[in-house]
Amino acid sequence: MEERNIDSAQSELKHNKDKANGDLNPKKDVHCIRAIEKFRNKDDTFFIPPDVKLAALPNSVSDCLYQRITTTIQYACAKRSRHGSGKDGWNICTDGCYKPNNKTVIYVLSIGNDYENSQSIDLHYKINVIRHKPRIKGTDIYVYQKNKDNLGGQSIKLGTWIDAVKQGLNDQNILIIDVESLTESVVDHIMMSGVLNVIHQFSIRISYGDPVSGIDYLTALQQLRMIFEAGFRIYGSRPEWPCIIANNKDRTSCVYLDMVYHKCRDLSKR
Question: Which residue among 26, 42, 201, 233 has its CA within the 20 to 30 Å range from the CA of 17?
Fold first, then answer.
């Protein structure tokens, strides 16, 4: 587990803003750059337009906007800790009110084996980490609680699992989602349930497409907009290049986003 200080966080924020403003080839992408300027906020982040305008965008412009949205840091988390090793490790923002306390619960829905991550969390914070693995049965998604060997016991429907997450009374709860091709379905359930209303941090490995067919930009941008409208801001972005698009080596269909709610939750209302 490692922590980072405010200087490194601010440096990363500046680096990512610089990257977002200048990593395209002007000769190749000049029209795209001009097209997305109208989606730039005053703080150099970008917003996603309503569905009607979004659906009308040329694919090249959607691609450009998606790249900017997923690589631009929106919030400077001065301190953070990392748990686990390699690309599947978890980041936790530990700034002020975001720092986990003894009532914090971390809910995880993931495909991979993240037992090492949960052990690191337990060692450092002594808080409850509840891990589940999703599987499709017919047309429904079921989840299985994980144990040390990444195997689960009895299954419950995704909706039942989400209801259990919503029961948490501490608004410092953390939600981690890493479900590969199930991203769209799982995010749909999460947004419809209002579960983000009781979550303080939200990390998700988005996967809207695959290296062969490319990225479903419309769905990706629609769902990201809903997450932002729910009050969450990106403090960490990690594109995963093993998911690189076959016909566009500058894009990847998998990006790991770490987000926090844009302000401290008012726990006094609980």
Answer: 201
